[in-house]
Amino acid sequence: MRVLGLLSGTSHDGIDAAVIDFAEADGHLRGTLLHESSVPYSAELRARLVAALPPAPTTLAEVCELDTLIGQEFAQVAALAAASVGGIDAVCSHGQTVFHWVDAGRALGTLQIGQPAWIAERTGVPVVADVRIRDITADGHGAPLVSFLDELLLRGRTGISAAVNLGGIANITITGPTGLSAYDIGPANALVDAVVTAERLDERGYDADAAIARTGRIDEPLLDALLADPYYALPAPKSTGKEHFHLDYVRAHAAGRDLSAPDLVRTLTELTIRTVARDVRSAGIGFLAVSGGGCRNPLIMQGLRDALPAVEVVLADELGAPADSNEAILFALIGWCTMHGVPAVIPGGTGAREARILGAITPGSGPLRMPEPVSELKSLTLS
Q: Fewer CB within 10 A of the terminal residue: the chain, N end or C end?
């Protein structure tokens, strides 16, 4: 079965896609990567999306319009991806998270937009979407879902190993003799991207190659204030997002301080390095695989290696999942699991009391025909 995984992450800069050709035998799943791409949102749509995100006020009319417009751009990306490989059998679309409701350490709801019916109409195949909420109904956080893929790829390693994804938010999956733990560490690129965009430091909306941060200096008092955020002290499982870590959050902490925009970007970059390194050290991790946009930031990667001299820090490519497409591959995997009746979540990864089959299915152009269920997913190999 060929499944297309689609998502736009917390950096909300565009749509990542990956087509995986899955073959299963006796619970052992092999996936071949046929296509990967990353397509930026149109400038107008991204500007509207950014303007509507918390803590900014918005309207139901704007949410409705964004749901359609994002769904249409996802559909366009899906059609191009499907054509590039000669057709697909199903799609799993994460859509765009616009709100993740957490209260008193418990996730109560989550909202992803990007209407999947547009994708189903354009491609003619069934679309799995709205994948996070089922885990939340089972007392999970609905995040980090990537812990499901991470555990499969880390399975069999000795000692304590981990995978960290540095998207808008940094999340980590830790495996070892005592089992699995996963949670959102805190901001990875979210705060830097917010400042770069607001200050118009780079039209791409991020600090490419850490060019801006390299010209700044770390403001230690500001960094100390940021590190004192109570979120970091919460026990796992926990999840967060731009409802908490956003531009106004940065402005509130930076108010009254004499620092340049590059100083601010450098300080926020160091925040990512220190929060990730602190959690890696405290867990006794010996092997760390890194993915997400932050793995292409040389300042972050060198900072992690300098802070963690006893840890083997590598790109996620070494586990078989290209670091730039890790999450798109995850959603292709979730789509395959949902179509085959397999829960695509690990309770230890999200805090759910039990694993659940994720998502809702929008039929394609013909009758919805589900494949034979698979009782258990024993292993995953990617190539």
A: C
